Amino acid sequence: MNTYEPGFAGKVALVAGASKGIGAATARAFAQAGASVVLLSRSQAAVDELAGSIREAGGEALAIAADVGDEIAMRRALANVMQRYGRLDAAFNNATDGTAPAPLADLDIAGFDRGIRTNMRGTFLGMRYQIEAMASGEGGAIVNMASVAGVNGTSGLAAYVSAKAGIIGLTKAAALDYADRGIRINVVAPGPILTHHLEAAGAEIQRHAALSTPMRRLGRVEEVATSVLWLCSEQASFITGVVLPIDGGMTAGTKVPMNYRRGEPPRPAEP
Q1: What is the pTM of this model?
Q2: Band of residue 101 on the pLDDT scale cut at 50, 70, 90
């Protein structure tokens, strides 16, 4: 039985929002697969620490502090990448921000604007300069970070849902723009993933989040990272413009217990 091992030796991969969680796991996965990894985050200290750990493991990493919503910062960041490596082969736009959950009429307006700026504008600016770099070379692959909330909607998260739905639209439009120019662009839509946010929320919130999926468990950051690398690899060379749910079946539909379909009283779900 063959084991899938994406090869990125000699390639350069950029991860925006790389300081922790899914971004950090994806950066490490790219490095382990042989890529030189560019780490973007607003915190220089955070990406310096991650870059150090990648180098200690034998990898190559460049740490850049940049606000993804700042056009000048993103242009300079990509210029830095091209000056250092002369190419860009893969990119993962993972940076995110937002406001506290609330019904739409109670949303903090500044928080809404911040969420749109980081998520949607940040993804646009990332693609804008990543595509330019890839087009000057042999092409490449971009993966953007959305969410099941951008596919189905979630109450109390109007800013987050709007931004993630917008990222899906941006991805599809860009994928069509560059489908015949050697640049593939896709989007992942994770469900509940055990990141630092859910870890901080505590065991009870984690249990309820797990029960919201048909698989009745949380996803792992490594599972998202593996999906991103696959979409950026040659194994996915005929795939562009897709939304890949990584959600334990949430977007497939509603799972009805077998005993309920037989007319029996529904049993409570097991944790």
Answers
A1: 0.91
A2: confident
